[in-house]
Every structure is written in structure tokens, then in C-alpha cells.
Here is the input.
Amino acid sequence: MPVLPIVTFNDPVLREKTKPVSENSEKLQTLIDDMFETMYNSHGVGLAAPQVGVELRLFVMDADAVTADLEDEEDLGKIAMINPEILELAGESVRMEEGCLSIPDVRDEVSRAEQVTVKYLDRNFEQQVLKASGWVSRVIQHEYDHLEGKLFIDYLSAFRRRLHRSMLKKIESGTLPVEYPVRPKKTVSSG
Ligand code: NI
Here is the structure.
């Protein structure tokens, strides 16, 4: 299972609206395996298909690394969500620090609903409904945003974004050293 290069800020593929997965296939199963491999290799807790350059409504997650030591959080292990749909956001708005494998070395606080109810197809194409809170809820909302072409930095104030500007420029130009394989933005040829 190969580790795939992760697309970084601000490749246009991260801004596209993704298409629903239409059918199960060997190719899809391989993609899911590769996405898990890529996520673990970069010590991430979630990875969405656009982050490996695939415009499909699919993400993988495993929040156990952050929930293992937290008493009130359940360890759910590896989850692949195909064609997820957010049915409900509930509870208070909670501010917590987030990062993103596509925006290495940038972290900041984002407010998100404490609870999420999501409907999705698992990798066997069976329909599931999951009600989650805490970290799992946050990861689901962050990864779901990727399928809508949205990044966590979009939630930041102009002031906070300005603080990250030089780092974002470095990522965009491919000059920031990253510990996992990345694919900097494609250069558009003018010819
Ligand atoms: Ni992300």
C-alpha cells in the first residue's frame, strides 16, 4: 500500500466541490487503503480524498490517537465515510485548536458544534448513522468541510490569518520542509 503525496495549500483541488462515489470497486477499496496508510504515515487523525487529489465524497479517520487518554471519549478505530451527510449539528459551540495535513505547521482555534450526527456508507457500502461528540465530532466536521472545498483557516479572522500569512506562502511555494510526502500546488503553464 503506497503512501500518497498530500496536496497542500492552496491547490485548486482543495477548493472544488467533490462528487458522490457512485459504486464500490477494487479501485475504491485500494484508494481507501492508501488513504489510511497516508494518514498514519503523516500522524494525522483524518484525511479527505481531495487531499490526495481525488474529487470524491470520501474521507478516512482514526481519532484513537487523541481519544485514547480521554475518559469520556470512545475509541472508534478506523472509519471510512463514503458520501457522508451531516444530519444534525447540536450542542454548544466549542473552540479548540486544529491543524490540517494540507496546511502543515499551521494551527489555530476553530469553533465547532459539540455534537454531530452523520449518515454515511462504510467501506462495505452499508449505511451507517453515527452520533459523535468531542474529538470525533470535530474530526468529522473538519473532514466533511474538505468535501465542500472548505479549509479550517477559512474560519479564522482576517487578523489571525495575517499571522499565518508567511507560513501559508511557504507552503504554497513548496519551500516549507514537510516530514511526509507532499505535492505542492501545480504550476499553471502560461503557454
Ligand atoms: Ni484537513
Q: What stands out?
A: The longest helix spans residues 26-41.
